[in-house]
Structure formats: structure tokens, C-alpha cells
């Protein structure tokens, strides 16, 4: 058994299907299938059960995945230890965050690269939170403080949320002077899983049944509001990127949302990860007024 076989196995388990794993690995689906079939033949056991939605691990497959994940963790630790000893400020840093942060992280990361051209930041914006403890990423921007001793978290600011609509929408819609007026307005919101956030509960309760657009992506919700579809609750920092948006019903106070930089204890030992973490902390502090919606 070689490490490449186990790497393919881990990718299939995390991606959920052979085709998704092939895309992540940069190969064709048949290559992944052949590797897994050959591995099963060598081990003399079934690792996967084929199901309509993709593949499901057998008990033997789950046991081998646990072993492979442990080996992967040890390999990452060994690599990070060597880099730490050498003091090299180069190589990749895998950064994960929600899509709402990407628009203003991009220019920040461009500035970071000017300081440290040897560091390559790989930014993943996904609704699925990558597991930092399992080293699926080196560093994360999170709005929930993680639990567990294997991760370290640094609070770097807070996000204010407000209700917004576009000037064009407001010019042609009914007056919006009080929360009761929302009964005459179209609303834009997030999908059911995200809508449970405290910052979104107020509008969900007031606007039940009047949502004309929903998405699991913050940039899509902001884009829909900018396209004059209705009223939405948005982070002030994201709304500030759309000059046509205006805050409405300023008397409605939505809860603040904490922002955390999170890394595993092992990743934090790596100089290039610490450099990215420190730089982002500086940028969040410098952008405090934007995050809080202070003009």
C-alpha cells in the first residue's frame, strides 16, 4: 500500500463521490475508480458501497480512512516542523472562509503578497467549513469561536448587520418608515440553514412568506438587493461594497457578529501561517469602522 492510494481514498471520502474527488485531484473519474478498485483487490475487502448519491464507506473503509487521516496528519506535522526549523517564509497557506469575506480579503491578500512574495495563499470560500483540526486548511476566518484544545482562536473584530435596500427599489416601492411597513415589501434572505443566525432572525420573523429570493451565499444575497429585488439583512462591510445600497429602518438593532482567526496549534508554529494571521489581524483592526458600519 502506498501513500497515493490512501490520498485518493481520503479525497473520495471528503468529496463524497468519485467524480468530485477526480476534480479535486485534477484527474479523470476513471483514474480514481481504477485506483480504488485496485486498492480493494490488494486488501481483499470492499471499501465502498455504491449508492445513488455517490459512494458510502463500508466499516472496513471507515477504519482505513481513520488510519489514512492519522498518517496525513503526521506527514503535515513533519513538513511543518522542517519548515519551522528552517525559518522559511515561503510556500502555501490554505485559508478558508465564508464567501461574504472574500470581496475584501482579496485586496488585503494582494498587499500581503507584496510583502512576502514567496508565500502563496490558497483561498477557499465554501459553504462547507473546512476542518482545521484535520488540517484541511491552515487558517480560517470564522464568525463562531471553535471548541476544542487542538485549535487556537484570536478575536479580530466584530461585524455589524443592518437592513438594506437599493435606492432604485425604494424609489418605486411603498414607504418604509417602520417595521410594520415591511408587510408591503419584497424581502431577500438566506436559505433555511443560514437563516437561523441571530442576525437574521428578526427579518425572518417579520417577513415570513414574503421572501422573493433566497441563497446560501452572502454575495448572492447582496447582489440581489443591489439588483433592486427587495430588502435584506446584510453585514455592513459587505453592503459597503455596493454604493447603491442604503440602510433602512435604522431603529432596528441586529446583533453584532464576532470575527475570529482560527488555526490549529501545529499550523500556528509555521512562520508563514503566523505571518498571514498577523497581517489579517492588522487589516481587520484597520477596517474596524467599515466592519461596524460607521461612516
UniProtKB/TrEMBL annotation:
InterPro entries: LysR-type_TF_proteobact-type (IPR058163), LysR_HTH_N (IPR000847), LysR_subst-bd (IPR005119), WH-like_DNA-bd_sf (IPR036388), WH_DNA-bd_sf (IPR036390). Residues 1-58 form the HTH lysR-type domain. Belongs to the LysR transcriptional regulatory family. SUPFAM superfamilies: Periplasmic binding protein-like II (SSF53850), Winged helix' DNA-binding domain (SSF46785). Keywords: DNA-binding, Transcription, Transcription regulation. The keyword Magnesium does not apply. The keyword Ribonucleoprotein does not apply. GO terms for biological process: DNA-templated transcription. GO terms for molecular function: DNA-binding transcription factor activity; sequence-specific DNA binding. It holds the Pfam family LysR_substrate. This is LysR family transcriptional regulator.
Amino acid at each position: 500500500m502506498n501513500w497515493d492510494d490512501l490520498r485518493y481514498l481520503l479525497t473520495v471520502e471528503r468529496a463524497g463521490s468519485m467524480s468530485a474527488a477526480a476534480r479535486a485531484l485534477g484527474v479523470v473519474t476513471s483514474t480514481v475508480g481504477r485506483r480504488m478498485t485496485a486498492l480493494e483487490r490488494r486488501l481483499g475487502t470492499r471499501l465502498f458501497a455504491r449508492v445513488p448519491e455517490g459512494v458510502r464507506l463500508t466499516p472496513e473503509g471507515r477504519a482505513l480512512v481513520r488510519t489514512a487521516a492519522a498518517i496525513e496528519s503526521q506527514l503535515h506535522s513533519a513538513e511543518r516542523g522542517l519548515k519551522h526549523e528552517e525559518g522559511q517564509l515561503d510556500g502555501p497557506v490554505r485559508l478558508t472562509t465564508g464567501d461574504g469575506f472574500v470581496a475584501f480579503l482579496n485586496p488585503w491578500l494582494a498587499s500581503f503578497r507584496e510583502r512576502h512574495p514567496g508565500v502563496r495563499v490558497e483561498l477557499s470560500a465554501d459553504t462547507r467549513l473546512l476542518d482545521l483540526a484535520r488540517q484541511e486548511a491552515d487558517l480560517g476566518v470564522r464568525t463562531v469561536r471553535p471548541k476544542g484544545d487542538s485549535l487556537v482562536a484570536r478575536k479580530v473584530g466584530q461585524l455589524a448587520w443592518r437592513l438594506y435596500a437599493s435606492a432604485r427599489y425604494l424609489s418605486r416601492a411603498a414607504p418604509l418608515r417602520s417595521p410594520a411597513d415591511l408587510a408591503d415589501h419584497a424581502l431577500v434572505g438566506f436559505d433555511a440553514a443560514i437563516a437561523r443566525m441571530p442576525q437574521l432572525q428578526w427579518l425572518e420573523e417579520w417577513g415570513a412568506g414574503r421572501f422573493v429570493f433566497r441563497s446560501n451565499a452572502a454575495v448572492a444575497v447582496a447582489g440581489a438587493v443591489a439588483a433592486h429585488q427587495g430588502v435584506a439583512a446584510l453585514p455592513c462591510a459587505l453592503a459597503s461594497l455596493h454604493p447603491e445600497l442604503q440602510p433602512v429602518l435604522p431603529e432596528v438593532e441586529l446583533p453584532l457578529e464576532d470575527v475570529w482567526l482560527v488555526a490549529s496549534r501545529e499550523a500556528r508554529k509555521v512562520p508563514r501561517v503566523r505571518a498571514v494571521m498577523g497581517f489579517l489581524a492588522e487589516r481587520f483592526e484597520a477596517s474596524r469602522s467599515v466592519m461596524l458600519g460607521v461612516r
